[in-house]
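Hey,

The postdoc asked me to send both predictions to you directly instead of through the lab channel. I've kept everything plain text so nothing gets mangled by the mail client. Protein one:
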Amino acid sequence: MKKSKLWSFTILSIFFLNACQSNAQQDKVLFRDTVLKYSVMQSDLDKYLTYRNITDTAGKTKDYIWILKSAMVRLHSKWAPLPNKKQVTYESAIADAEAWFIKRNMVNKVLVVKSERKMYLLKDSNIVKTYSIALGPNPVGQKEYEGDGKTPEGIYTLDWQKWNSTTFHSFHISYPNKIDSARAKAKGLQAGSNIMVHGTSKGFKQKKDWTNGCIALSNKDMADFRNFVFQDTQIEIKK
């Protein structure tokens, strides 16, 4: 009789452990933020899909995880609203995250055509916005070296921002790349650096081409630009 009870207990224990392990495996970590100290779990994704009644996730899982990351920050981070402000609920956090996701994905490329003095914000080759721009004093041709007054040509990334810029706001262009550096080095020159997309110094109206090789927008256009373009967006600059 004792052996039978012991055997039954052993079977139940194994079943319980297997069930726990199975649940742990199912609820895997999809994203972990080590700075803000939160995670997006498989169970969070399952909850969101059920909440939005989504059955087809083909090719969209990364987008849903991005939405959940944004919602989690609002729900759990130290930057959540203070008690005297409107309470953040799961529903409101998800709605805000979805709206932010749509806005972030309205533009996926910036195209600059120097000869036209135009900048185009694109979404899959479709023009979303058009701005007039100013360049440096010697804008024709590829940038060769520091101080030549030219704006580089090629495909780059808007890799960081300067919020306290003297020119209203700045997005850094990832110039020089390896090709740019090698070209300058072959001629014994410095390729140059700190090429930006920026606004106008202190809001003053400037002459047609007034930068040192950067791409300038009016402050009004720069304010609009940063509503649609985000860090890590590709920028292509043509002659």
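Protein two:
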Amino acid sequence: MAILSIKNLSYSKHHKLILQGVCLDLEPGKIVALLGANGAGKTTLMRIISGQAKHWHGQVTVDGQDNEAARKACISFTDQLSGFNKAMKISQVADFYEQVFPDFDREEYRKLQQFMNLSPDMRLREMSRGMKEKLIISLTFARQVPLYLLDEPFSGIDVMARKRIINSILLWKNDQSTILLSDHFVNEISSVLDEVVIVKDQTVLAKQGADDIRAKGQSIEQYYESFYQEGEDE
């Protein structure tokens, strides 16, 4: 059974069509890149999957669940800490997650927090953008769920720390969980990818295995860019 199944999904906002006819199936245990130009609809698609965006048409199923509440319980999404008081300590944010999410593993979170070099006594207002992103990644992976949605999770993190985190992602998911990852650092994430999904022209245009792409002599970035070069040439 697919971890994520999307059928004939369409979504408009303010009378503007953003996604149409989206179909996508993701299997258990995969790390999948969701690639597309700015404004292609990647974040919108993740918000629909996670239950944050409303009034869409079609079908979205996560781990066999199509009811919104049940689907949300199967997903850990990189939320942006916007609802938290900036005076809160990191430890208090973790306390909140532990209370709200039954699948939150405090011991796993402690390991991730140490890996990210984050002090539990640090307050949100004291944190740089990169530190906040490290905290968000720690909170996201401390939940034990079938599907992880990572929307541009590394953009504020410095190069060396980013590489270290990307190389460790394989250790933070169980064998049956799937990660859907949207990111502009295509070359840096390519080594951990199993599949690549291309979003263009308001839909999912292609899904291809990473090894199949490499077997054709292309890098993941070259494969992605080829879709947009073709569009520019037309």
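Summary for protein two, as requested: The chain has two domains: 4-74+147-233, 81-144.

Thanks,
C.
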